[in-house]
Structure formats: structure tokens, C-alpha cells
Amino acid sequence: MRILIICLMFLSMNLFAEQQPLPLDGKAYIGSIGYKGSDLISEKDDVLTFKDGKFYSATCKVWGFDGGQYSVEQSGDTIKFKALTSSEDHGQIEWEGTISGDEINATLTWTKERWWWTDAREEKWFRGNVK
Questions:
Q1: What DSSP assignment string belongs to 22-75?
Q2: With contact defined as beta carbons under 8 Å apart, do 43 and 59 qualify?
Q3: Residue 107 has what DSSP assignment?
């Protein structure tokens, strides 16, 4: 009986414990997107937002890419993040980036499986600063 009570106490503590926000929650970064291997900018003034454990791109939202879960790995003052955003009609975008101070540098890989033609794949970069 005593063991049952102790187990129930631990279970209830875990159920009611508040989730700790991720270190990027509430932050936004503004920057440009370009094709990998080129310094030419293809999209200006994209805003990347981290909110409630999700990652959003304002430019990609236009194409139906909703916010996706993100994860972080912190080492000193540098934060590495990964996120996956999806669109029902346009595939998915895998994001990987590094934030150091107010600067963000990321790569994004867009993929879309197609049944009538070759699958789509584009690799781009994002460079920006805290908004």
C-alpha cells in the first residue's frame, strides 16, 4: 500500500508539473533566404519565430507550412536548433540552424514527393538577426 501511495504521488507531480519553455520561445529573427552555393538573395525579410515549442517561418506560411516542433542543443552561448515544418500541398521543410548572440544562420531543405515527375528538393540558407 505504501508503494502504491508513493507511485501515485510521483505520477501526480509529473502530471501537474509545468513544462519548461524552450530557450528560444518568444524570440523572433528577421533575415534573408538564398540558394545554397550562392550569395544571391531569393527572399527578403522572412521572420522566423519560436513560440510555445513551435517554429514558424512567415515566408513559408504563405505556402501552407504551419509551425512545427523544434528542438535545441545549447553549448555555452551557442544554441543549435532543428525543426520540421509541413504543408499538405507543398511537402516539408527541414530546418537546422545555429544562433550565437543576436545572429542566426540556418539551412533549410525543402522536399516534395511527386507521383508524376521527379521529386522536388531545394537547399537554401537563412541569415538574419534578432528582431
A1: PTTTTEEEEEEEEETT---EEEEEEEEEEETTEEEEHHHHTTT---EEEEEEEE
A2: yes
A3: E
